[in-house]
Amino acid sequence: MEEAQKYPWDARRRPEVFVPVQESRDMPCSFCDWWSTRSQILCCCFPCAKCISGVKTVDGTDHTIWKKQLEAPPVSEKCPDSMKGVWWLKYNTAHENLVAIFNETNFIGEVNEDGTEGFGSYEIPMKTNWTRDNSCFGYILAMNASLTNSKITGLYNLKDGILNIGGKQWIYKISDNEWWKVHYEGDLGEEGEKSVDYMYQWLKVIDKDGEPTEFWSEYVNWSKQELPHRNSCEPWFPCWPSSKKLLNQQLFQDMIRPNPKQIVMFRE
Q1: Cβ atoms within 10 A of the Cβ of 224, count?
Q2: 183 CB-side CA count, 13 A
Q3: What pLDDT, on a 0 to 100 scale, did the predictor assign at position 238?
Q4: Looking at residue 89, what is its pLDDT?
Q5: What whole-number distance in Å separates Cα of residue 216 and Cα of residue 221?
Q6: Sheet holding 96-99, edge to edge
Q7: Fewer CB atoms inside 10 Å of the end CB: C or N, the chain?
Q8: What count of other Cβ atoms lies within 10 Å of the Cβ of residue 38?
Q9: How far apart are alpha carbons 59 and 40 in whole angstroms?
């Protein structure tokens, strides 16, 4: 707790507007659609990957699949009601979408009932209650989380509504249903400490009682829509002809559309 209290939270300010700057980023090997959330590249390996990771396939557009998880006690009894629920990682280009972030968080420090006061550290396991797309990229993420028991760790300052993951990643509270995760080019005191390199939203799509929020319908629509840019033989032929090479912004538009089929390991 003392470390969080002494941390220089005033060294940065929350961006005034939300801009997903990663939309113009170059994508390696973009001629092969490994990056597409609907891609079936290496699908012959999915059953083996599912066995290794321990995940199951679910309908990501059915909010009732989270009912049992939200009825169960959160990892930490300190978790405020206002922070409970399922969050959509909107504009994140990694193939991961729905996470019961704060239900899975172990708060180590002080937290008031409303979630508006308190300093400390936290841990979030990436193995359970964290969905990925039913894709090769999604299975790689799921296997890594399962085999390594990966955790996200950092400090929190709920008075100002800020979490960090080291010095380069800060998450800012916008409202009870929205946070912005911002990646900076440099750590505090380094060149690029205020230059934004990556930015996406945490939007609460299902509340603590299992009911959809104002953001749920958009998540479902994005999941059910066809991809904005399609290969003539997708999803089975993974390579794009040079005549149809996509611009970075077009790749980004495909990468942020969730697969309606999600893979997940629910916490028992």
Answers
A1: 12
A2: 9
A3: 67
A4: 98
A5: 9
A6: 56-59, 261-264, 130-133, 96-99, 86-90, 196-206, 178-184, 169-175, 162-165, 151-157, 119-125, 106-109
A7: C
A8: 19
A9: 17
Per DSSP (E only), the strands in the chain are 56-59, 86-90, 96-99, 106-109, 119-125, 130-133, 151-157, 162-165, 169-175, 178-184, 196-206, 261-264
DSSP result, 203-216: EEEE-TTS-B-TTH
Instruction: Please say whether the dihedral angle defined by the alpha carbons of residues 87, 198, 196 and 221, taken in this order, is positive or negative.
Output: negative
What residues pair up with 106 in beta bridges, in sequence order? 123
pLDDT of residue 245: 65
Determine the length of the chain: 268
Show pLDDT as tens, one digit a residue, over the chain (268 residues). 789 999 999 999 999 999 999 998 888 887 777 888 998 888 999 999 999 999 999 999 999 999 999 999 999 999 999 999 999 999 999 999 999 999 999 999 999 999 999 999 999 999 999 999 999 999 999 999 999 999 999 999 999 999 999 999 999 999 999 999 999 999 999 999 999 999 999 999 999 999 999 999 999 999 999 988 877 666 666 676 654 567 888 889 999 999 999 999 999 8
Question: Are residues 76 and 100 in contact, defined by beta-carbon separation less than 8 angstroms?
Answer: no
CA angle 31, 32, 33 (to 5 degrees): 115
What DSSP string describes 35-57? G-TT--TTGGGHHHHHHHHT-EE
d(C-alpha 136, C-alpha 40), whole Å? 7
The pLDDT, as a whole number, for residue 234 is 67
